[in-house]
Each structure stands twice: as C-alpha cells, then as structure tokens.
Design goal:
The structure holds 2 protein chains of 2 kinds. By secondary structure, chain A is an all-alpha fold. Chain A is built from 28 helices and no strands. The C terminus of chain A is likely disordered. Chain B has 2 domains: 211 residues, Cytochrome Bc1 Complex, Chain C, CATH 1.20.810; 75 residues, no CATH class. The chains are: A mainly alpha, B mainly alpha.
C-alpha cells in the first residue's frame, strides 16, 4: 500500500513539474488531471483539448473532490464532496450549474445563451427515458463529455458537418427508437444523403441545412406541436430562414422569393391564413429529409399525391404526350409552382388571359381551341345555373318556406361543378359535357322546386286572405245579427229575472 | 208550409225530444255586469282545446314517434303533406293560446272569487285541467325532436330530479331512463296523445257538468244589487252567438299567426352535441325557470334550487286550495288580501317571464 502511495506521489509530482498547461497554476494544482492522465485514461486526455479546460475549469468543478490533495483517498473522498461520475439527470444538472447561470457564464467570458437546460427539459428529448429514471437525452448525449468543442470547431460533435452523425447515433438505431416511437422512421440519414442539402453537406458545405437547421437544437419539439419549427404551418418560415435570405443564398444561384410566392398561393393562403391543417407546406412537394426540387417528369406525380384524379386524367389526355415532347412541366405549365393561383373558370377558354390560349389558337387543326371555348361556356352555364338556383332557394327560405330537399339537391349542382374542374384535365369535351349536363339538370330541378315553394308562399297568402275575408264577413254578420237580436225584447232577458 | 229546416227539426224532435233541451237552454241565462267579458274565456279555452284535438288527430296521421323518425316526419308534414304546414302551425299556436286563455280564465275566476262555495270542485277540476295543459305543453314540446326541445326537456326533467327523495325516481320515470333518449320521446308521445287527452276529457266533462248544474257564477257585487236592477241575457242564442263570434275572431287570429309566423322546426336533436345557447322552456314555465336561475346554489341548510321548487310547490298547492282557506269570501266579505295576492302573483309572473325572455 505504501508503495502505491509513493508511486502515486512521484507520478503526481513529476506531472506537476512537467505539465505545460495553458492555465499553468490551475492545472499545476489539479491533482486529478495529473494522476488520471498519467494512468493513460482517455477522458483526461480528451479533456486537455476541451473548451472547458481552456476556460480553466477543472475536473473537480464537475466531479467534485479535492483537486489539491495528492492522495487519492483524500482527493476522492465522498464525505468531502467527491461526486464520482454523474449519472442520468445529474449530468445535465452539473452542466446547468454554469450554463444556466448567466453571471458565471459572463465570468468565463461566454456569450452563450443560458436557457439550454430549460429548453431541453421542455423538448421532445426532455421526456422520460425508458429507464424511467431520467430524461431521454442529457447534454453529453450530443456534446460528449470530456472532448467538448465550440460548435464552430470541426472537431465538435455539433459542428454542421458532424451534427447528422450525432443525431443519427440514436435516430438511425431502429432498436433504440422503437422503444420510444415505433412509428418514427429511422431512415432520415439515408434520405438526407440523397437530398441537395445532404449532398452538399457531405461535400463540406457548412451552410446547407442539417438536422438542427430545421429542427432546432435544445428545444426540439415533435412536428405535431404547433410551436415546433417543423409543424406544418411553421415549415415555410423555417425553410425561408435560409431560402429567403438573399445574402445567405448568394452563390447557390436559385431564387429567394419562393416563400413569398408560396404565401400568396392557394396552398399558402389555405395553410397560413385559413389554418387548414391539410394544406400542403414546402415539404409536401419537396420532401423533408430527402428534399430536392421535383424534376420536370415527376411534377405530376408530386401534385398527384393530393390531386390524384386530376393527375390520372391528365396522364391519359392528349396533353401528356405533347408536354413530354416539349419538356414542359406538367401541372406547373398551367398552374405555376410556388405561386399557384386558385383555378378559376377564367383559366379555361379562348380569351387572352386563359391558359389554353397561350398555346392554342382558333386556327388549330386539332380543334383544341374550339374544345376549350365549348368547355368554358359549359362551366359558365353550370355556374350561372347554380347561382340562380341558389338565389331562388334562398328567396324561398327567406319567405319561411321549407326547402330542405331543394337545398340538399343543390349539393348535386355544386358537386357537378367541382367534378367539372377535375374532368377538365381529361381535355375531352364529351366527357366534360356529361358532368356538366348532370349539374345543369340538377340545377333545373332545384329551380323548379324553389319556384314551387315561392308559388306556394303566395298561394298561402292568397288563401289566408280569402279565409280571413270569409271569417271576417261571418264575424261581422254574426255581430249584426246579435245586435238585431238584442234590440228585440226577449222573454228571458232583461231586468228582474233571476239568473241561472 | 213548413220550411225544410223545421221539418228536419220536427223529425229529430219526435225521436230525441229536443224541445226539452231547447227549453232548458232558453231558460238558462247569463248575468250581465261589467265583468261579463271574463265569462267568454272558458269558451275560448274550450274552442282552442277542440282545435288541438282536431289538428292533433290530423298530425297523428303522419307523425312517427322515435328518435330516428320524429324530426323527419314533421319535416315531411311541413313540406310534403297538403296543408301540413298549416295544421302544424295552428296546432303549435293554438297550444300557446290555449294556455294563455286558460290562465286568463283562471285568474278571472280567482279575482271574481268564483271559486267560492258552491263552486270549489269546479275550481279544483279547472286547476287540474290547467296542470294537465302544462303537461300537454311540456310533452308536446319534445315531439318534433329538435335541438331546442331536446335540451329544454333535459333541463326540465333535471329540475324534476332535484326534488328531495322522490325527484330521482320521477326523473327516471319521465325520461324512461337516466337520460333523455328515444325512450323519453316514446313516453312523452304516449302522455301527449293518450294519457293527457283521456284525463283532460274526463275532467272537462265534470267541469262542464258542474257549470251547467250550478250556472254562471255571479260576482258578490251582482248579488248585492237589487233584483230589479240585475240584468241577464239568455244563454241561447245570445251568449252562445257571442261565444261563436269570439271563436271566429280567435280562428282568424290563429290563421294569421300560422301563415305569417309559421312555427319553426329548427335543427334535429343531437344528443352528443353540446347544448346551444339560449335554451329556455316554453314561456309559461319561464318565470319558474328564471327564479331558479337567480337563486344561489345554497341557502344555508337547503340547496337553492330545492328551496325554489319547494316554494313553487307550496305556492301551487295554496293556490289550488284557495276555496278552502279563503274564509273571508265564504263569510260574504270581500277580502282585499286575495286581490293583492293575485296581483302580486301576476306581476311576479310577468316580470320574471320578461326577464327570462330578455336575459
């Protein structure tokens, strides 16, 4: 035992003498580091390069104990405050002793935020681990323990080029992830490597998005949380953080007005103004982890994930071949991409502002121009038929008539109108006419029923007028009869006759 | 040469001895005084009851009870059945006018002290008919199975459930279970078209027999008038024709109300939906409903609502038994207290009904 003590003392002494630490006096006095380093332990050698070591923080600042004591028993005496290796939440609490204290952080000359621990606790990683004894993630889960570097340092586990590896350490581990969320995908890394972001990141571009760029770092929330950066309605803003920043995007040669245009689009209005949770966001078309701009040939597939019938009809239409031959993006050619306007009847037909007339002219031998004009006139008839039927139903309803049936049938007109907007993608006049005719017939039926109800309204008033007249005449006649009757003396009426 | 009508009368008289009835009716007379107008409200109430019976039977031809059918059948009556809208509207309006007319009749009898000896039983039978009338209204309100009726019935039966000891069994009996469901609708339908009409008809017969046997009540001031100055009119044809005149006017008013203010159907009841705003019972229950709303949750040893219900129950009982405790009238004196009580009750009902309607 004495030999061990002697050896330890000699090693410590030599370490103190020979140690060239940046914080000479502090390091020289740190018996913990000297001893553990001499034993060749990896944590101590890592710590020598750690940002904390550079700031003069000793082993004892995290682990407790007496760094000045040369003897191991005294240095690591738990009764004197030695904490051993912190476990579970004690790890993060240890970090938070400084990192959640702005005054202490200032003393170290740091301008880092001090809310990381609070954010982490509220984040999805702040949930209870399967062990039930601690939070899912601790500070060290991402930052490491003894080899922590500033995030701008390429050696840091949270350096932009390393973040993906750090996150997927858990997120690509199917066995581990299953214990928390069996439905959560574990192929994010594979997808990411196929994305523009991932490919650039792999080439060393630290400006392209990695996990933390979109999900955040300490305060990561699930995508279903309205406060999450990747909640559907927040995604345009998250993407715009880089993609709308012209200075940041300089050099990539892509536009920076997508978010602005998306906000004005029918999708953007539905998602951001009307709060429609089913409306698409950036990732609905571009993908999320595997984000790429859809190619010309795949646009109809992308749009078709939601607009399935339109895409199917378009694929079997004469336009499909023509567009392919001319390398025209399918849906985008007529509808635009980011700034998709509501599809109105004005898009159809031969007018100057109609999209059909951008390619077709009256002299077209295919008759396509004529078809467009015919379909436009049918849409207009359907719309005016619906409007007039609705106006009549409203009028009848305002007059207090029961028009529940007509109102229900009005839905068929609307349905036909909606269907016509889909069928138009077949660019087949006969098929379109079939749908339009159904709607027009329904509109006619509704108009007839509503008209009957209005007729019934007037009939009731006339009937009431006649009934009131008859009753009034009867009442007046009766009144006059009573008066005449009471003018004549009656044997049982008058004074003096006992009643009953 | 006898006219055709005389010949028909003679033919019937020969077989049915109608002359006796005519003589009885000719001899029967009605006192004339400044309060004579109130005599007509009994007849108006009867007329409205007859309308209810006739329109109710017509509605029964198409009405289908049951959670899934009730609302739709009324919708069908209002939109598809010839004059169905008119019949339903008249039934709904006449129901309200019936209660109004019955209340006017009851208060006129109260203020004229017509309940005094020997007409105590006439008063009792009339009051019971009024209570059944309320029952008619409460049960009929649910039959269209619309949202407003559903929740009003829920609230109404909830209130019944508050009564100590017997409240819960009464509530379960009324609802046909713990909640307002299709079973409640079936039950209320049964009350509305079978139980109440049966009881009402028996009471009405008794009431009319009493009136015929005892004649029209005369106010005390009429009795104090010298016999020479007392005037009367024959029941037949004078009073009856005046009754008929009023009935014609009421029918006219009903027709106008039914056409210009058709009774709305609202939206179908959805037991899983939350209660819509503005749930309130029919107007004649509103003063009680409003009172219960104003009462604090607890009044020391007793629950606020229980206290309210007990007060109304005791008040109703005292009102019902007024012929037996109003000793002044029996002794031939005109009790001012009765007038003040009556006026206070009317003022209370009017004020709380208005408050219930406007708040």
């Amino acid at each position: 035992m004495d030999n061990v003590r002697l050896l330890t003392s000699l090693v410590l002494l030599s370490t103190i003498i020979l140690s060239p630490g940046r914080n000479g006096s502090a390091a020289a006095a740190d018996q913990c580091l000297a001893c553990h380093q001499s034993l060749g332990e990896r944590p101590s050698s890592l710590f020598k390069h750690d940002v904390h070591f550079e700031k003069g923080i000793s082993c004892a600042d995290c682990h407790g104990g007496n760094p000045k004591a040369a003897e191991m028993e005294k240095a690591m005496d738990t009764t004197a405050g030695f904490l051993k290796v912190p476990k579970g939440d004690a790890i993060s609490r240890t970090c938070a002793r400084c990192h959640a204290d702005s005054a202490r952080m200032k003393d170290f000359g740091s301008s880092l935020p001090t809310n990381q621990w609070a954010l982490l606790q509220r984040s999805v990683h702040g949930g209870l681990a399967t062990s039930g004894a601690e939070h899912i993630a601790q500070c060290t889960s991402c930052h490491g323990a003894h080899g922590i570097f500033p995030k701008t340092n390429p050696r840091s586990s949270v350096y932009p080029l390393n973040v993906v590896k750090t996150c997927t350490g858990c997120h690509a581990n199917a066995a581990l992830m299953r214990t928390y969320n069996p439905s959560l995908a574990v192929d994010q890394l594979e997808k990411y490597r196929t994305s523009v972001h991932g490919m650039r990141n792999a080439k060393g571009d630290i400006k392209t998005a990695e996990c933390a760029s979109c999900h955040g770092s300490h305060g990561i929330l699930p995508p279903t949380d309205v406060n999450s950066r990747v909640y559907r309605a927040n995604i345009p803003n998250t993407c715009a953080g880089c993609h709308s920043n012209a200075a940041y995007m300089k050099g990539y040669n892509i536009p920076t007005d997508q978010a602005e245009r998306f906000e004005r689009s029918v999708h953007g209005v539905a998602l951001l103004q009307k709060g429609d949770p089913g409306a698409p966001s950036c990732n609905s078309c571009h993908g999320n982890h595997g984000a790429v701009p859809p190619g010309v040939e795949s646009i109809s597939n992308v749009c078709g994930t939601c607009h399935a019938l339109n895409a199917e009809l378009f694929s079997s239409s004469p336009h499909k071949k023509a567009f392919d031959e001319q390398h025209l993006p399918e849906c985008e050619t007529c509808h635009e991409n980011h700034e998709i306007k509501p599809a109105t009847a004005a898009m159809l037909g031969g007018a100057e502002d109609a999209v059909c007339s951008q390619c077709h002219s009256p002299s077209d031998a295919s008759g396509a121009y004529h078809s467009a004009v015919v379909m436009r006139s049918m849409v207009d008839s359907l719309k005016s038929g619906e409007d007039s039927a609705r106006a009549l139903v409203n009028e009848a309803e305002q007059r207090g008539m029961e028009v529940g049936d007509a109102k229900f049938k009005l839905r068929s007109v609307r349905q036909a109108w909606l269907e016509s907007r889909t069928v138009v993608h077949s660019f087949d006049v006969n098929r379109f006419q079939k749908v339009a005719d159904q709607g027009l017939a329904a509109a006619l039926e509704v108009r007839r029923e509503a008209g009957d109800a209005i007729g019934e309204y007037y009939y009731r008033r006339i009937g009431l007028g006649i009934a009131t007249l008859i009753l009034t005449v009867l009442a007046v006649a009766l009144y006059l009869y009573i008066r005449r009757l009471e003018r004549k003396p009656h044997p049982t009426s008058g004074p003096g006759r006992p009643p009953g | 040469m006898k006219t055709l009508s005389h010949r028909i009368y003679d033919w019937a008289d020969e077989r049915l001895h109608l002359q006796e009835l005519v003589t009885f009716m000719e001899k029967k007379s009605v006192p004339r005084h400044r309060g004579s107008i109130w005599y007509y409200f009994g007849g108006v109430t009867l007329f409205l009851f007859i309308i209810q019976i006739v329109t109710g039977i017509l509605l029964l031809l198409y009405y289908k009870g049951g959670e899934q059918l009730a609302f739709e059948s009324i919708q069908f009556i209002m939109s598809k059945v010839a004059f169905g809208w008119l019949i339903r509207s008249i039934h709904s309006w006449a129901a309200n006018l019936f209660i109004l007319s019955a209340l006017v009749h009851m208060f006129s009898v109260f203020f004229e002290r017509a309940y005094r000896k020997p007409r105590e039983l006439t008063w009792l039978s009339g009051m019971m008919m009024l209570f059944i009338g309320f029952g008619f209204g409460f049960s009929g309100y649910l039959l269209p199975w619309n949202e407003l009726a559903f929740f009003a019935t829920k609230v109404g039966t909830d209130i019944a459930g508050i009564i100590p000891v017997v409240g819960k069994p009464i509530m379960v009996f009324l609802r046909g279970g713990d909640d307002v469901t299709g079973a409640t609708l079936t039950r209320f339908f049964g009350f509305h078209v079978a139980v109440f009409p049966g009881l009402f008809t028996i009471l009405l017969t008794i009431h009319l027999i009493f009136v015929q046997r005892q004649g029209m009540s005369e106010p005390a001031r009429f009795e104090e008038t010298a016999p020479k100055e007392r005037t009367t009119m024959p029941f037949f044809p004078n009073f009856m024709l005046r009754d008929l005149l009023l009935w014609l006017i009421v029918l006219n008013v009903l027709a106008i109300l039914a056409v210009f203010f058709p009774w709305e159907l609202g939206v179908k009841a959805d037991p899983f939906a939350s209660a819509p705003a503005g749930i309130r019972p029919e107007w004649y229950f509103l003063f009680m409903f409003q009172t219960l709303k104003y009462l604090p949750a607890s009044l020391g040893v007793i629950d606020g609502e229980v206290f309210g219900i007990l007060v109304f129950a005791i008040g109703g009982l005292l009102w019902l038994l007024v012929p037996f405790w109003d000793r002044s009238t029996v002794r031939g004196r005109r009790s001012r207290m009765i007038t003040y009580v009556g006026l206070a009750v009317i003022a209370y009902i009017i004020v709380f009904t208005i408050l219930g309607w406007t708040t």
